[in-house]
Amino acid sequence: MRRSLALSVLFTALLGTAMACAVPSTTRDTPASEPATLSAELAEQPALPPSAAPTMVEMPTVEGENLMVAMDTLDSLGITNVLPLPADGHAFVANPANWVVVAQDPAAGMQLSTADEATLQVAKTDEAESSWCGDGDC
Q1: 30 backbone dihedrals φ, ψ, rounded to 5°
Q2: Beta bridge partners of 122
Q3: In what residue span(s) does the PASTA domain sit (predicted)?
């Protein structure tokens, strides 16, 4: 959400700059006492909302779940700093839908801050392991 708002402000600023370059030279020679068009446009933009303060939540049980489902569950609680670690010899996780959570840290029921990292050890599903490796996730 914050990223899209920041990108919107940046896009507006760039668009304003591009439009200022396209304005005939008679309007570019405004006295320094008049505010620049770009500054006025930026002043009209709403301020970015303050970031939400981290809160304490209880870590749910995600062991045995598909990694994509587990990440959605954690995200719904505000836990967005999730590190999936392959526990089966693979180098990395390319497609979370092809993995199952085999262990989690912190353990289910433990309290953690929404700013903390949750580590999920994962193994590739049998179905994904036996399929063609076109997704680069083998």
Answers
A1: -80, 145
A2: 86, 101
A3: 53-124
- What would the two tokens of residue 118 be? 């949750």
Structural element, H or E, at residue 24? none
Q: What is the Cα Rg of the chain in Å? A: 24
Taking the C-alpha atoms of residue 117 and residue 104, their distance in angstroms, rounded to an integer, is: 11
- pTM of the entire predicted model: 0.60
How far is it, in rounded angstroms, from Cα 62 to Cα 120? 9
Residue position matching structure tokens 């999920």: 120
8 Å CB contact between 112 and 82: no
CB neighbourhood size of 9 (10 A): 15
Distance (Å, whole) CA 138 – CA 128 = 8
